[in-house]
Structures are given as C-alpha cells and as structure tokens.
Amino acid sequence: MSTLFFYGTLRHLPLLETVLGRGIEPEKTRKGIAKGYETFAVMDRDFPVITEGAGQAEGIIVDGLTDEEVARLNFYEGGYDYALREIEVTTESGSVKAEVYFPIPNSLQPDGHWDFDAWIKDWSELTCLAAIEAMSYFGVKTDAELDFMFPTIRVRAAAKLAAQAESLGLSPSGFTRDDAKSDLITNHYTHYFSMEEHTIRHKNYGGGETTGIKREVFVGGDAAILLPYDPVRDRVLLVEQFRMGPWARNDQKPWMLEPIAGRIDPGETAAQTALREAEEEANVAIKDLHEIAKVYASPGCNTEFFHIFLGTADLPDDVVGVAGLDSEAEDIQSHLFSFDQLMDMVESYQAANAPLVLAALWLARRRDALRAAA
What we know:
This protein folds into 3 domains: 2-153, Gamma-glutamyl cyclotransferase-like (Hypothetical upf0131 protein ytfp); 169-218, no CATH class; 222-373, Nucleoside Triphosphate Pyrophosphohydrolase. It is 29% helix and 38% strand. The protein has helices at 13-20, 67-78, 116-122, 124-135, 143-165, 244-248, 270-282, 339-347, 354-373, and strands spanning 2-6, 29-41, 48-65, 82-91, 94-103, 180-190, 194-203, 209-219, 222-230, 235-242, 255-258, 260-263, 286-296, 305-313, 322-323, 332-338. The longest helix has 23 residues, at 143-165. The radius of gyration is 25 Å and the shape is globular. The protein starts with a strand and ends with a helix. Residues 219-359 form the Nudix hydrolase domain.
C-alpha cells in the first residue's frame, strides 16, 4: 500500500476518484502541508507544479493506495509530464513520508500563483470529463500515447460542455435528449480523433420506441470558421491547404479553398479562436466580427460543430502569403478574390466547401450594409 500527497488538481476528490476508478473513504484522506516546497501555475496550462522553495504547499494525503491505483495515477500524470518522488509532509498528527508527483525536469515552466479554488470554478468540470475519457485508455494506451492525445481529449470534453450549455436547434416534435437512451458506447479508435459506436434507443413519432440502433460517430471538437472581407476593396481572403477528406474520397483536387478555420481550445470562446486563427493562418487582423451561423457539420455521423463568422479587415494586395504553425504541420497559402469572383465560384460549384458557400451567401445578403458602414 502507498501513501501519496496531492497538491494540485487531484486534491479535487471527484477528479481523484475518476482517476482511481473508485470512491475514497473519508478516513483515508487528511490535510497535509509540504514545508520547503511551493506550488506555481504552469505557463499556458490549467494545473500547477511543485518546486523546492521557502514557502509551503498545501494538499491532501491519501493512504492505502494499491499498486494498481498507483499505476492508474502514473498513467494519468504521465500524460502531464510528472513522476513520483518521496518527501516529508506535515499533518495534524505529525510528519509522514508521502510520494508526490514532481514535474519532469525542463518539461513544464512555472508561471506565477496557482489558485485551487479558481481552478475548481473554471476548470474542474472540464478536467473531470476529460479524465473519464483519458482513464478509459488505461491498460490500452501508453503514457506517451496519452500525452499526445490529451489536448484533443480536452477539446472533446469542452465541446460536450458547450453542447450542454447551449442547444439552439429547433425541434418541433418536442423531443429532447431525455427521450433517447444510450445502451452501449464502444470506442473503436482514438488517436488525434476518435471513432465511437453507439447503441441507442429512442422514442419515435408513432408513439413507440426504436431500439438496438447501432451507429458509428466521428467525435471531434468545436471549430471557429472565419471569412475575412474587405468592404472597401470588396474582396475576401481565402486559404488553400491540403485536406484529408477529399484525399480519402479520391478527389483529384485535395487542396481546397476555404475560410480560415481552427478548433476551439478549452478556455477560448469561438470569437477568440476566430481572431487567433486569422493571425496564425493568414497574418490578418480582424476589425469587426459578425456571427453567421452555429451549425453541425454533418449531424448524421459527426459531432463537429461550427461557429461561422465574417470578419471585416484591411486586405491589400500584399496581405497574401504562406502561413501556418509548424507544430500542427500547417502549410497554408492565402488568396484574394473579388466578391464577384467568390459568387462565380459558388454558382459554378468551385467553392466545394460548405462553410465557404454558407458564408458567401450570408455576405451576398449583407454586403451593401457592410460597404455602407465602411
């Protein structure tokens, strides 16, 4: 049996119980203080690190952890670049030796104060939801695989929370999620993306119930999509890049013209993502954002949800070029098209991208007003 001291997010018992795969008896948990250590936030992350210092780190001690439970903890924390080390921890009844997860050297950069209560308010729900998926891979994936997958696991969790918070679609039948039940979810594949098989039953329009329906679902995240438009020059900027969908369909033109787009990272709004992606993909500064639509990409088999915007911008001739993040293997060429050229592409089916067509038609409807206000 092992004794561990948790100073960070695993102090939150719902998260700790998810990782351990069991409830925690109150008598197995007690408060502890690690003197001579301090906790700090991690740059661009929502969890802390512990380092040697002049202060003290508060947390909880959990006794009686089995080898399998420690292995589950190692798997989860391995995804965050941590490793166990034994230290002295002070409790009300005296000092005890406990193992603590320290960051692997040079893997995480401390960045100021970390507030546990603020984390509970802002991040605990998402983190617990992401942990449910992460721990489903225990014994199936390696620590390194989980480390690679964790960012997209969190994106999927954020998308689920967003769907719970806002459901805009009209359902004249009055049916809701409560009128369907999931009997089984099987994960067939997960790496950067995920593929699940759902067995469900739901009410039907005749008053009965449909049962035993099996459907595969591509599980992605939410995305922000942006069409930059210059109302003075009356033209738009589109980006061109290689796309796997047309490639896998055997399309002879897998390089596609489309609006700027990117996944919504946890903690970002759709609007913030759109503005960030405009800079990353095209080095364009957006003046004003206009919401066009909030839509599912392909609701029959895909969880992806699009927040589509038009953004007014200054688009001179020299704004075009090659951009994108090397870390995401992006190779993106931007192009300028007049409004008339854009509409010609729509009418000739050369705009073979659904969000682009939708944004173009919205622009056609609002173009006069945008130009008058410029």
